[in-house]
């Protein structure tokens, strides 16, 4: 092949959630025709398809939580509800002709690399050969069930928030919720509205900041439909505001951290009247160590007469309910596990093998890591979107995917020009990147004396420890010195 020819790669994308849809749109925009999206379920939307629990919403302002090129005048509230977000992704996917490219109900079981090509096999027995394989499976999609003795013996209904059983009646029931994270803070107020009694089993209290959930009127929407540029300005404004406050607070910038701490502490002080309850809800770690919860309903709800905040610790579960360490039985009809996710699974359990048959389990045995969060040495032409150390926190994950997509597109564009046939991150580049991250972690609040899903088994936060602007800047252009450029 002449090196100047523009060639058309075959690209397989795993997952038709927010990131998969975005990639398909952008790849098509650059003229790539052969794009296949493999989706394990019968619908698109990723996390917004999976999470249907009562109260599910995005605690990032809706006008920020959109693709930058597809503002949405229809949001009903400042914090969009889960079903609206799901509808938004379906609409965008249809409008940009992504939906016909999605192969539904086809889970990837294995993928292997050989001589510049990826062979991907699915649960339907299909095989796809591609030049690039991109994992867009998201981060928090493997529910973590607590390892509490007796959990299986519970005779009532029990389910995880991400596997909500809508057939279970809740009206007038005795409901238990284990967990007090971002999910729990949304679901608990809804349970307290309908349940006879709601027992909230809190292991660790959380810092909560209150941001009013403005309702958008028909008038507002009419205006925005006519003038979408207003929404683009909102997008920019919220992005700026969240970076200056939440994002800078967690990486140790003094003033933003003081501000966030003040807002959380004031919220607790002014919202919770009873000093005993307030004490139970007061964390003993720095604001931001666990992801700051943005919520305006939890504190009101937990003070209702039918709410019980249980802090004694769970001893075991019996067929009738939860027994706490003080020996008390909390009788329940329904037990809800708001216990989070396994964040380090990424695209697994699929069987992924790179060059010379090396498996992802072998490469990640010591540590789950990726160069620039995207590339894993020995896995040429494989991209892990939203990989470890993507700057998650309280920022919009859509903005992160957009930055990473541009980076990946530049690499694919150079492949098209014939600059290489395969690209593989160098091991030493990954180690340099890891050391650079480690250096930044010391100043962050994630090591502020708490346990959180941000921490890997070594206790290292799988986060970006510098500013958002720095990340955007460093992600502008791939540094090819950090890669092996292979001609096959
Ligand atoms: P999470 O933050 O990991 O919280 C899990 C909760 O379950 C914690 O309170 C934890 O207690 C508790 N827990 C876990 N195992 C337990 C056990 N064996 N016994 C007692 N308690 C146990 O999970 P999440 O609330 O689902 O949120 C995860 C992430 O999803 C968030 O941080 C956020 O990034 C994302 N999310 C976002 C939104 C949004 O609106 N954008 C909404 C929901 C979730 P400890 O604190 O003691 O570990």
From TrEMBL:
Q: Name one GO molecular function term.
A: flavin adenine dinucleotide binding
Q: Tell me which UniProt keywords the record has, alphabetically.
A: FAD, Flavoprotein, Oxidoreductase
Q: Which InterPro entries match?
A: FAD-bind_Monooxygenase_sf (IPR051209), FAD/NAD-bd_sf (IPR036188), Flavin_mOase (IPR000960), Flavin_mOase-like (IPR020946)
Q: What Pfam families would the database entry show?
A: FMO-like
Give the matching PANTHER family: FAD_NAD(P)-BINDING DOMAIN-CONTAINING PROTEIN-RELATED, L-ORNITHINE N(5)-MONOOXYGENASE-RELATED
Name of this chain's protein: NAD(P)/FAD-dependent oxidoreductase
Protein source organism: Leptospira jelokensis
Phylogenetic placement of the source organism: Bacteria, Pseudomonadati, Spirochaetota, Spirochaetia, Leptospirales
């Amino acid at each position: 092949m002449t090196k100047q020819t523009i060639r058309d790669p075959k690209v397989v994308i795993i997952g038709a959630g927010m990131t998969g849809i975005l990639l398909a749109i952008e790849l098509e925009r650059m003229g790539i025709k052969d794009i296949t999206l493999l989706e394990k379920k019968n619908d698109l939307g990723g996390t917004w398809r999976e999470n249907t629990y009562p109260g599910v919403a995005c605690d990032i302002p809706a006008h920020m939580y959109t693709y930058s090129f597809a503002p949405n005048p229809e949001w009903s509230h400042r914090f969009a509800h889960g079903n609206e977000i799901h509808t938004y992704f379906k609409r965008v996917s249809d409008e940009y002709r992504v939906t016909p490219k999605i192969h539904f109900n086809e889970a990837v079981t294995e993928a292997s690399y050989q001589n510049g090509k990826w062979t991907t096999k699915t649960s339907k027995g299909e095989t796809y050969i591609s030049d690039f394989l991109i994992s867009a499976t998201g981060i928090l999609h493997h529910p973590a069930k607590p390892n509490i003795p007796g959990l299986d013996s519970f005779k009532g209904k029990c389910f995880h928030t991400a596997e909500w059983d809508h057939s279970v009646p809740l009206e007038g029931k005795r409901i238990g919720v284990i967990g007090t994270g971002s999910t729990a803070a949304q679901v608990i107020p809804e349970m307290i509205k309908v349940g006879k009694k709601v027992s909230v089993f809190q292991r660790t209290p959380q810092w909560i900041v209150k941001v009013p959930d403005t309702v958008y009127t028909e008038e507002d929407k009419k205006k925005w439909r006519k003038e979408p540029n207003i929404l683009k300005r909102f997008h920019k404004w919220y992005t700026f505001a969240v970076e200056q406050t939440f994002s800078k607070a967690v990486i140790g910038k003094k003033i933003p951290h003081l501000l966030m701490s003040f807002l959380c502490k004031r919220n607790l002080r002014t919202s919770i009247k009873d000093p005993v309850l307030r004490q139970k809800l007061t964390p003993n770690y720095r604001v931001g160590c666990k992801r700051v919860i943005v919520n305006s309903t939890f504190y009101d709800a937990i003070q209702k007469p039918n709410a019980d905040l249980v802090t004694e610790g769970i001893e075991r579960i019996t067929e009738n309910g939860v027994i706490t360490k003080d020996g008390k039985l909390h009788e329940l009809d329904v037990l809800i596990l708001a216990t989070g996710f396994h964040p380090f699974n990424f695209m697994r359990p699929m069987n992924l093998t790179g060059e010379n048959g090396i498996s992802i389990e072998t490469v990640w045995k010591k540590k789950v890591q990726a160069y620039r969060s995207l590339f894993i040495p020995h896995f040429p032409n494989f991209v892990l979107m939203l990989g470890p150390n993507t700057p998650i926190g309280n920022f919009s994950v859509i903005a992160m995917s957009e930055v990473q997509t541009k980076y990946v597109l530049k690499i694919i564009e150079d492949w098209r020009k014939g600059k290489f046939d395969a690209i593989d991150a160098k091991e030493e580049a990954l180690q340099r990147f890891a050391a650079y991250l480690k250096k930044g972690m010391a100043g962050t609040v994630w090591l502020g004396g708490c346990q959180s899903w941000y921490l890997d088994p070594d206790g290292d936060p799988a986060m970006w420890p510098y500013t958002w602007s720095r990340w955007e800047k460093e992600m502008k252009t791939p540094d090819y010195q950090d890669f092996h450029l292979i001609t096959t």
